[in-house]
C-alpha cells in the first residue's frame, strides 16, 4: 500500500548546491541524488496501527548555520548538563553543526577515529564509503531515502582491530533553530576483537517549533567485537522524529542497546539487529514514556542468521495522559540458525484512562533446533504493590511514581555515562510526575 | 509520652461477599505484646488486612480506634502514618526501587515535608538496625524483596518495622517458613522494639515463636472471633492439647472454616 504524501520541498539542483557548499566528494553527493530520486518515488513506511500519513517528515529547514560558540562555556545549558563531569570523548552538534569535540590523544594514537560525519567523508572517505548505508538500505522507504538526500549532521566512530576502550564516546545533538530539521547519520564501526561504548543524546528547545528529526544509525561489530550503544532521545513535542538504529553483528560479536526513548513529539522508531555470524549476541533494552497526546510506534527487530546466536529483548514503557504507542517486538530465526536462542519481553504500564498502548510479540521461526520465547503485557500498576508501599505510609501518588520509576530503572542503570543516566532519570521523573 | 491505645469493637469483615470476621474485640496498649492464635481459616489474617485497609477486605460493621481516631475512615497510607504497621505474610516485590529509597521515602512520608530525615542519620540508623537483624549491608541497595528468600523477606519486614517505629504492629505469621536461626533474629528485632510507646499483635499458629517473644496476653480465635483469652500459659496448653482439645473445652462445634 502506498501512502500519498506532500511533494518534497527541495530538488536536485538545490541539493547539489548544498553538497558543493559543504565540499563533499562526488561519491557522497551522488548518494544524495540517488536518495532524492528514491524519496520522490518511494512510499512512507507503513507501521502497523499507527497512522503517520499526516506527520510532517519532509517540510523543514535543513540548511542551518550554528549560532553556538565553540567554547565549552558557550554551549547551551541543556548540552552542558549532559556532558561528562570530567573531560571525556565528546562531540557536540548544535543544529546539526559540530561545535565542539574532544578525543583523548592516546585513543587517536591507537587509530581510533571519532569525528562528525562531514569531516569524516572528507578525511576518511574510503572508510566511510565502506559502511555508509550498508546495514540500512537507502531505498527501504521514503524516510531512509530522505536521510541520504539531505543529511546535515552525524557522527563517525571507528575502532581498529584489537583496540578495547573502556571510556565511553559521547555525542550530543541540540536543536534550537525554528522549523529546523536534524538529518543525522551515524556510523559506529568496531573492527575484529575491539570493544567500544557509544552514547548519543538528542535534545531540542521549544524554539524549534514544528521541526523534524530523521536519524539513521548504523553499527557494525566485526568478529568478536563488542559494542555498547546507549541513547537518550528528548525532542520537544512539536518535532516529528523518525529514528532507525540498526546493527550488523559478525561471528561472536556482541551488541548491547540501551535506549531511552523519551521524545515528547510523534515518533517512529525502527531498531534492528542482524545476528549474522555464528555465536553473535544481542541484548536490547528500551524504555519509553508516552505523554501528552503524542503518538509513537516502536519496532524492535532481531534476526538470527548465524548458529548459536542469542538475543534478549526487553521493552518497558509507561503511557500517560492521552498518549498512544504501539510496540512491536519481532524475533526472526532463519533456517540454519541452529542453537539460536531468542527471548523477548514487552511490558507496558497504563497510567491513564485516555492512554493507549499495544504490545505485539512476533516470533518467526524457520529452524527446529532453537529456543525462543516471548512475553507481553499491558496493564495497570499492580494493586498489591501499591497497597504494600502505602501500608508503609507512602502516599498513593508517590507510591505510583516509585513503582513506575522502578519499572523503568533497569534500562537507566545500563547507560554508561552518569550525566546521561541523570538526564534519563530526570526525564522519566518529569514525564511521570 | 502518652501511651498509645488500640481498641477494636465488634469488628465484622467480609471478603468478596463472604463473612469471615464476626465480632472481633481487642484492647491493646503500648508496652503490651499480644499473641493471636487459632487454626487455619478462622480469620486471623483477615483481621490484620482489614485493619491495615487492604482494598479486598470489606469492614461491614464495628470500629477500630487508634488513640480515639477511627482507623476505618482512613486510607491505607493514613493508617500507617497514624501509627499502624503490618508485617505481611506475603510482602510484594517492587522492582527497580531499592530498599533504602523505599524506607527513606516511607520515613519522610511520616515526618512530612520540611522535616525530612538527614541522609547521614538515615544511613547510620539503617546500618545499625540491619546489623541487629544480621542482614548484609547489600540489602540496602537491593530492590525491595526482589529475589529475596522467604526468610530474607520476613527479616526485611522486621527491618521496616524497626525503621518506621509505629505505635502498633501486627506481625502476620512472621514465623511461617522460618528456620530457627532466622526466628531468633526476628524475635531479637521485636524485643528491641519493646517499650511503653509500642504495642504488638503477633499472629501465629505455633507456640514456638512465643518462646522467644514472651506475650502478655494470648487470644484464641475461632470462627471469626476471639473465644478465649489468657496469659502465656494458654499457648502452652494449646501446644499440648491442640485446637481440638480447646474446641471440646469451649464447646465449639467443628463447623465452617473459612479462607484466611
UniProtKB/TrEMBL annotation, chain A:
The gene is sufD. It comes from the Bacteria. PANTHER family: FES CLUSTER ASSEMBLY PROTEIN SUF (PTHR30508), UPF0051 PROTEIN ABCI8, CHLOROPLASTIC-RELATED (PTHR30508:SF1). It holds the Pfam family SUFBD_core. Residues 176-407 form the SUF system FeS cluster assembly SufBD core domain. Belongs to the iron-sulfur cluster assembly SufBD family. Residues 91-170 form the SUF system FeS cluster assembly SufBD N-terminal domain. It comes from Sporolactobacillus mangiferae. This is Fe-S cluster assembly protein SufD.
UniProtKB/TrEMBL annotation, chain B:
SMART domains: AAA. The keyword Transmembrane helix does not apply. Residues 6-248 form the ABC transporter domain. Keywords: ATP-binding, Nucleotide-binding. Gene3D superfamilies: P-loop containing nucleotide triphosphate hydrolases. It comes from the Bacteria. Pfam families: ABC_tran. The keyword Transcription regulation does not apply. SUPFAM superfamilies: P-loop containing nucleoside triphosphate hydrolases. NCBIfam families: sufC. Belongs to the ABC transporter superfamily. Ycf16 family. This is Fe-S cluster assembly ATPase SufC. It comes from Sporolactobacillus mangiferae. The gene is sufC.
Amino acid at each position: 500500500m502506498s501512502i500519498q504524501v506532500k511533494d518534497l520541498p527541495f530538488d536536485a539542483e538545490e541539493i547539489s548546491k548544498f553538497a558543493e557548499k559543504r565540499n563533499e566528494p562526488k561519491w557522497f553527493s551522488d548518494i544524495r541524488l540517488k536518495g532524492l530520486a528514491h524519496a520522490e518515488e518511494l512510499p512512507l513506511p507503513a507501521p502497523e496501527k499507527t497512522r503517520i500519513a499526516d506527520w510532517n517528515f519532509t517540510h523543514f529547514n535543513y540548511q542551518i548555520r550554528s549560532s553556538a560558540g565553540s567554547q565549552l562555556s558557550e554551549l547551551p545549558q541543556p548540552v552542558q548538563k549532559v556532558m561528562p563531569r570530567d573531560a571525556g570523548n565528546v562531540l557536540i552538534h548544535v543544529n546539526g553543526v559540530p561545535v565542539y569535540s574532544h578525543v583523548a590523544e592516546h585513543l587517536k594514537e591507537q587509530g581510533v577515529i571519532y569525528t562528525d560525519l562531514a569531516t569524516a567523508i572528507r578525511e576518511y572517505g574510503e572508510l566511510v564509503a565502506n559502511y555508509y548505508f550498508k546495514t540500512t538500505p537507502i531505498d527501504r522507504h521514503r524516510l531512509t531515502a530522505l536521510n541520504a538526500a539531505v543529511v546535515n549532521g552525524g557522527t563517525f566512530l571507528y575502532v581498529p582491530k584489537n583496540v578495547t576502550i573502556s571510556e565511553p564516546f559521547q555525542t550530543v545533538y541540540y536543536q534550537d533553530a525554528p522549523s529546523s530539521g536534524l538529518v543525522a547519520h551515524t556510523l559506529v564501526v568496531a573492527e575484529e576483537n575491539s570493544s567500544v561504548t557509544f552514547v548519543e543524546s538528542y535534545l531540542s528547545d521549544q524554539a524549534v517549533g514544528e521541526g523534524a528529526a530523521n536519524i539513521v544509525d548504523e553499527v557494525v561489530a566485526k568478529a568478536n567485537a563488542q559494542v555498547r550503544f546507549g541513547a537518550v532521545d528528548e525532542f520537544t513535542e512539536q518535532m516529528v522524529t523518525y529514528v532507525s538504529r540498526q546493527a550488523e553483528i559478525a561471528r561472536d560479536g556482541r551488541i548491547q542497546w540501551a535506549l531511552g526513548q523519551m521524545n515528547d513529539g510523534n515518533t517512529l522508531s525502527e531498531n534492528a539487529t542482524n545476528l549474522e555470524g555464528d555465536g553473535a549476541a544481542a541484548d536490547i533494552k528500551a524504555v519509553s514514556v508516552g505523554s501528552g497526546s503524542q503518538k509513537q510506534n516502536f519496532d524492535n527487530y532481531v534476526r538470527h542468521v548465524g548458529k548459536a546466536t542469542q538475543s534478549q529483548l526487553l521493552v518497558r514503557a509507561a503511557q500517560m495522559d492521552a498518549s498512544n504507542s504501539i510496540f512491536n517486538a519481532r524475533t526472526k530465526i532463519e533456517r540454519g540458525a541452529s542453537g539460536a536462542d531468542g527471548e523477548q519481553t514487552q511490558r507496558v504500564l497504563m497510567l491513564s484512562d485516555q492512554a493507549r498502548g499495544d504490545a505485539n510479540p512476533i516470533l518467526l521461526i524457520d529452524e527446529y533446533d532453537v529456543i525462543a520465547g516471548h512475553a507481553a503485557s499491558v496493564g495497570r500498576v499492580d494493586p498489591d504493590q501499591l497497597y504494600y508501599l502505602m501500608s508503609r505510609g507512602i502516599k498513593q501518588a508517590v507510591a505510583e511514581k516509585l513503582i513506575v520509576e522502578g519499572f523503568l530503572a533497569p534500562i537507566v542503570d545500563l547507560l554508561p555515562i552518569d550525566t546521561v543516566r541523570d538526564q534519563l532519570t530526570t526525564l522519566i521523573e518529569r514525564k511521570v510526575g | 509520652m502518652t501511651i498509645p491505645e488500640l481498641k477494636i469493637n465488634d469488628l465484622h469483615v467480609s471478603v468478596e461477599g463472604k463473612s469471615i470476621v464476626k465480632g472481633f474485640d481487642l484492647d491493646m496498649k503500648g508496652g503490651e505484646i499480644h499473641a493471636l492464635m487459632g487454626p487455619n481459616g478462622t480469620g486471623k489474617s483477615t483481621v490484620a488486612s482489614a485493619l491495615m485497609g487492604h482494598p479486598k477486605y470489606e469492614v461491614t460493621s464495628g470500629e477500630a480506634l487508634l488513640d480515639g481516631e477511627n482507623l476505618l475512615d482512613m486510607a491505607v497510607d493514613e493508617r500507617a502514618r497514624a501509627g499502624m504497621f503490618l508485617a505481611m505474610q506475603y510482602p510484594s516485590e517492587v522492582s527497580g526501587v531499592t530498599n533504602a529509597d523505599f524506607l527513606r521515602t516511607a520515613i519522610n512520608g511520616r515526618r512530612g515535608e520540611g522535616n525530612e530525615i538527614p541522609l547521614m542519620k538515615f544511613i547510620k540508623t539503617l546500618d545499625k538496625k540491619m546489623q541487629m537483624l544480621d542482614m548484609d549491608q547489600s540489602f540496602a541497595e537491593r530492590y525491595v524483596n526482589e529475589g529475596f528468600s522467604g526468610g530474607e523477606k520476613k527479616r526485611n519486614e522486621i527491618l521496616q518495622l524497626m525503621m518506621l517505629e509505629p505505635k502498633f504492629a501486627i506481625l502476620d505469621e512472621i514465623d511461617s517458613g522460618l528456620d530457627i536461626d532466622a526466628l531468633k533474629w526476628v524475635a531479637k528485632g521485636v524485643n528491641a522494639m519493646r517499650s511503653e510507646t509500642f504495642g504488638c499483635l503477633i499472629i501465629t499458629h505455633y507456640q514456638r515463636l512465643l518462646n522467644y517473644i514472651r506475650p502478655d496476653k494470648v487470644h484464641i480465635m475461632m470462627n471469626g472471633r476471639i473465644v478465649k483469652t489468657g496469659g502465656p500459659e494458654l499457648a502452652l496448653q494449646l501446644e499440648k492439647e491442640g485446637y481440638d482439645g480447646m474446641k471440646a473445652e469451649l464447646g465449639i462445634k467443628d463447623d465452617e472454616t473459612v479462607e484466611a
